[in-house]
Amino acid sequence: MDDRRDNRVVITILFLCLLWYAVSSSSNVVDKMLLSKFPYPLTVTMVQLTSITVYSGLFFNLWGVRKYSSNITWSYYLRLIIPLALGKFLATVFSHVSIWKVPVSYAHTVKATMPLFTVALSRIILREQQTWKVYLSLVPIVGGVAVATLTELSFNMIGLISALASTMAFSLQNIYSKKVLHDTGIHHLRLLHILGRLALFMFSPIWIVYDLHNLMYEPMLKPSVEISYYVLGLLFLDGILNWFQNIIAFSVLSIVTPLTYAVASASKRIFVIGVTLFVLGNPVTWLNIFGMTMAILGVLCYNKAKYDQRIEKQKKTILPNYYETIQNGNSSSFLVNGFASKHQSFAV
Predict the structure, then answer these.
(1) Is 63 contained in some domain?
(2) What sign does the dihedral 167-172-173-174 (CA atoms) show?
(3) CA angle 308, 309, 314 (to 5 degrees)
(4) Reduced to 3 DSSP states, what percent helix, strand and coil does the chain have, rounded to the nearest 5?
(5) Where are the transmembrane segments (predicted)?
(6) How many domains does the chain have?
(7) 91 with 176: CB under 8 angstroms?
(8) Which of 5-28 are b and which e, b meaning 16 or more Cβ less than 10 Å from the residue's Cβ?
(9) Helix axes 286-327, 331-347, angle to 10 degrees
(10) The whole model's pTM is what?
(11) What is the mean pLDDT of the chain?
């Protein structure tokens, strides 16, 4: 029974990861196709936020996703949740600008620098120190991105800055999202829904003033109805793919360990880079590919170093508690209770 259950879990994880890779690659390809014909990254972002707002409320209720408690104070909203919504909006906009200005493969290579931002921001915000292995793992990441940048045939400074800004915003979002999930106990999918809805509400006036005015007088869409239908179809498809990608990513995160998720995420980036290079056919050199590979391998080394650091920290917290129990003269009861609880769990 246990073997069959384990096999089902493994098959489920593999299926979700493959689906995640396929949807993410499709989403990036559609983003590039859309933005090359429709250079409005702010509008594309608003469509994605609308998709999260509309689809999540309906489907989460049908799926029985736990509703969040209404006792979250307004001060907490103003202090953490609203800034998180702002970060989600900015991260998504900058991500779309980078995909618009540079090839998807290069944008994802630059996004591999996320561990660098995470380490720096955790040090500044949380006063968190890392091991020398973690710091050392950042070297191939920075080196790989540098090589990929210097050899990028379609280099664009706005694209590079936007990709870096998007990566930093996502790093901040990850740090504070963990804090909100820990403080409130809210379901991660409900948090996604709240952030999408807040971001849509806050930035709708900016979209109306900036992009809607330009769209109404943009001559590019007026001569051909076929182009208009094509763009609208891509916008609709992009919104669905982005929403579905978020759902799958959170589902994978909920059933695997942080290390497995980090490795799966890095593998997804490799898959996306490979698929977009094949489908979109942007020109690359062997040095460019070497830089991309070096950066991704650096991310995998970083994930392993963080896992080792976490295990070492757990050992340091467990051992003092054990010796304190021994010193207090409770060693026999400690061992008996441990033996009993082990057999109880085995019986279950």
Answers:
(1) yes
(2) positive
(3) 100
(4) 85, 0, 15
(5) 41-64, 76-100, 106-126, 133-151, 157-177, 189-210, 230-252, 259-280, 286-305
(6) 1
(7) no
(8) eeeeeeeebeebbeebbbbbbbbb
(9) 130
(10) 0.80
(11) 81
